[in-house]
Amino acid sequence: MKIINKIIKKFKKTDEPNKIDYLLFGIISVLLFVCFLYSDIVITTEHTLNFMDVIKSGDFMDFYKVNYNLKINGLNTTVCYDILIYFIFMIWNIPLYIASRFMGINILKSFLCKLWIKGIVILFLYLTCKVMKKIFEELNIDKKLSKWGILIFASSPIIFSIIFMMCQYDIIPIFFIMLGILAYLKNEEKKFILYFMLAIPMKLFALFIFIPLLLLKEKRIFYIGTKTICSISVLLVCRILENFMPLYYESVQNFNGSMIERLSNIGFDISTGSVSIFMILYIIICIYCYSVKFKNKKHFQDLTIYIPFIVYAVLFTFFKVTHPQWYIYITPFITIMILKNTKNFKLNFLLEMCMNISLIYIHFVYFWWVFDTNCITLMLGKSPFKGNILDSTNFLDLNTSFGLTKYMPIVYSIYFATILYLAILNFPKEESKQETVIIERSLIWSRMAIILPFALMLLLLYIL
Fold first, then answer.
1. Is residue 6 packed enough to be buried (19+ CB in 10 Å), middle (13-18) or exposed (0-12)?
2. Within 13 A of 346's CA, how many CA atoms are on the CB side?
3. Could you tell me where the DSSP H helices lie in 264-344?
4. Is this model's pTM higher than 0.90 or not?
5. Residue 127, Cβ neighbours under 10 Å: how many?
6. Cα(263)–Cα(316) distance, integer angstroms
7. Which H or E run includes 193?
């Protein structure tokens, strides 16, 4: 009886996460990690092995050429990213290169090789958590509360779906972005620019927050221009080099062209043309950052976290067809914002939960080909069972079968309303009252479990 009372007492203590919290996180993480694999990272891995081939043979400039319309796992693929990120993949995939090129192992048929392929995103998730811990320290957030913050970030439904299931590598530029944010908070300007120099060529989304953050501190026009040029210098070097590489333009034109088009697709017409809602709001944010004057350190820290959040919230809300993996850019900033706004911690947490539920549902239905039973087949092989009792392989089928399509506007509205309220509720004020945060373990567990019905339903469809 004493042992049971001791366990109950320990469970009720919520000043920091305990072993049960980490165990639940571990169980969900492992389940998703070993059962799901989306084709994007498989394709990128194959491109990386070819990258190592052209370096080994001295034909570095043929990188885009050898990967042009390359058939991988039944799909015609091309390289659509700048070359910098492939150097990171190259280092990680040296063991796979040895296994593939020297031992004759088919890495797409080896379960252990597929675990290794996925491992790079887990590594960068871990590294990002380490950086976030340092950011919490810089923001003077209590050490025990910081532990909850790391768990809240790592157990986000978006992290579960994008990192552990989909295995998307946007976490790599996020790692460098968060290093840049840490340097920014510590007034280490050279490091701030350096880390964004590395992040921007991996995904241009980093540039969208670099500019307003620069404007927040720098008011001299000449230095704004020179520092912006410095931030894109690595990207410019990559682009100049790539333009001398055969079939580079043909490889990236569809991807880059569609991104620009989608960026300006949501808007309205004026007398002489059309305008983009995102660009209007983004310009307003930049003007605000240039004009605002922070009077104390806390106000500056609040703005440093809020600005990236609001930029990405606006970008991905008013971007025509936002891919699921892009929402991961918002996740670290929402987490930090929730921990800093102690007065509204519970309300923020509930709003973020509702936002996540709506986003996960939207992603599983709208991007049905990303989250379907093929992702399980790619990881585990064909199901040993024959037939499909439910005659479905994805959530679009289920959504249609149960007549839920007509309710999708409500789901979209929940997302829009919650992220809008988060933006309003957390707008930085010069003075804000700090209160003690009481963590409710039931809320943490409920949030962790959001992904389970979706994942388990796909596993059921796979088995049946």
1. exposed
2. 9
3. 277-291, 297-317, 331-340
4. yes
5. 17
6. 9
7. helix 189-199
Question: How far is it, in rounded angstroms, from Cα 30 to Cα 53?
Answer: 33
pLDDT band at 407 (very low <50, low <70, confident <90, very high): very high
CA dist 46 and 316 (Å) reads: 29
pLDDT reported for residue 205: 93
Q: What are phi and psi of 320, to 5 degrees?
A: -70, 110
SS3 state of residue 283: helix
> pLDDT, tens digit, for every residue of 38-55?
999 999 999 999 999 999
d(CA 31, CA 37): 12
Q: Please report how the helices 189-199 and 171-185 are oriented relative to each other, as an axis angle in degrees rounded to 10.
A: 170
pLDDT confidence tier of residue 264, bands split at 50, 70 and 90:
low
Q: Which of 402, 442, 357 is nearest to 161 (CA)?
A: 357
293 pLDDT band, cuts 50/70/90, is confident
224: Cβ contacts below 8 Å, ≥ 6 apart? 214, 215, 218
CB–CB of 359/327 below 8 Å?
yes
Q: Return the DSSP state at 372.
A: B
